């Protein structure tokens, strides 16, 4: 509960005590605050009495506070691998336009991956904009992933560090893939849901795909959604850590699955990245797979059924499960649910 209270109070602290935040962000952030509180509550409260995960705090190597993560560990059945056998690691990062959030935003995904693949699954929480701009969130995620790839974590959680996968939603795709670049060859697979891969372009300049609403009711919030990278954009235009679209294929996870809604302003940049990666990996045994979902909006796997197709949502989750299981099996881990 303290995590929820802290996350929800951060906007108020930012709005009324942090002078460097421009007014153009402040009033928009204030307008977004009720929705921000509602999102956090909806993601956190279902887990408030749950014992499905444990919470840990990881030291920061960048001078920040400890980084909160939640960890799901598999429940073994009679046909499961031996409990003494080192287990795969899956590391997931929540989205939310790089705004402050909770590790529980990816708790449903983390629990599903843990249950269906047998991997120890970690969801990380990072500091967000507009109080914290680039590279703060990236540093937090880098530190958390580096810890779980350490010998200390391998021993503590009985991990197979040769069998590591990552995932992310929206901004979390950017953060997870960026962190993966610090461990070239160490991340075996990645799943991208609606990924933000090109921050050289502000939201209001991204090309609108066919079927995109003529009038965007939340357009006034776009400067807030851009407040993490926007103020520093000219300085980091050529930075592949921020702009994943610039990263060479050999810097990214070996195998990649992209879940892409077609009614999303990110469609063009995701498609460009996918096409380039396919060309760069052609003739190799690497996998770059993309599934496009007609008529679906940004974040569709998490949206309620009244605005997304439940069949397509479940198809996306199922494809994630199968992709990660196949990656783990290449590493010698076969899990029976």
Estimate the global geometry from the Cα principal axes.
globular
Number of helices: 9
What percent strand? Answer: 15-25%
Rg calc = 19 Å
Number of strands: 8
CATH class placement: Alpha Beta
Helix content: 25-40%
CATH level 3 topology: Rossmann fold
CATH architecture: 3-Layer(aba) Sandwich
Averaged pLDDT: 89
Lateral arrangement of strands in the main beta sheet: 1-2-4-3-5-6-7-8
Order of helices and strands: HHEEEHEHHEHEHEHEH
Low-confidence stretches: none
Q: Kindly give the count of domains.
A: 1
The major beta sheet can be summarized as:
8 strands, mixed
Organism: Arthrobotrys musiformis
Protein name: Alpha/beta hydrolase fold-3 domain-containing protein
Keywords: Hydrolase
GO molecular function: hydrolase activity
Account of the 3D structure:
The chain is an alpha/beta fold. It has one domain: Rossmann fold (3-Layer(aba) Sandwich). It contains nine helices and eight strands. The protein has helices at residues 2-17, 23-44, 107-117, 136-148, 151-157, 171-180, 222-225, 267-281, 310-330, and strands spanning 53-58, 67-72, 87-93, 120-124, 159-169, 189-193, 255-263, 288-297. The chain has an eight-stranded mixed β-sheet, with helices on both faces. Helix 3 (107-117) links the parallel strand 3 and strand 4. Helix 1 (2-17) packs antiparallel against helix 2, helix 3 (107-117) packs across helix 9 (310-330) and helix 4 packs across helix 6. It is globular. The relative contact order is 0.13. Keywords: Hydrolase.
Keywords for this entry:
single chain, 337 residues, Rossmann fold, eight-stranded mixed β-sheet, 9 helices, 8 strands, hydrolase, hydrolase activity, AB_hydrolase_fold, Alpha/beta hydrolase fold-3 domain-containing protein
